[in-house]
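Figure 3 (text version): structure tokens given as input.
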């Protein structure tokens, strides 16, 4: 019974030590984040918008009509009708 009590005591002391070490790691991590954000601010990069002046869709591969309809329907359902798909259909002839 004496070994059981010693094992239980070691387990409790170990769990408390791990808890406090994790608190220390979390505190140091938060401090590091604050330090980095203070001395190294995020650079804002402004991207120029790309205009499609040629009215050529982005996708240049031919698709069967059923596949194109399925893609457009899926995007419409997933985006609540706000999504737009540029699918080109080439007709050779």
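Below: residues designed for each position.
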């Amino acid at each position: 019974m004496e070994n059981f009590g010693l094992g239980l005591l070691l387990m409790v002391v170990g769990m408390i030590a791990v808890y406090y070490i994790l608190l220390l790691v979390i505190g140091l991590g938060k401090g590091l984040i604050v330090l980095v954000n203070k001395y190294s601010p995020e650079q804002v990069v402004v991207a120029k918008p790309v205009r499609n002046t040629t009215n050529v869709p982005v996708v240049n591969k031919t698709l069967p009509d059923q596949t194109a309809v399925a893609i457009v329907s899926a995007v419409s359902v997933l985006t609540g009708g706000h999504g737009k798909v540029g699918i080109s259909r080439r007709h050779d002839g």
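The helical segments are 2-39, 65-79.
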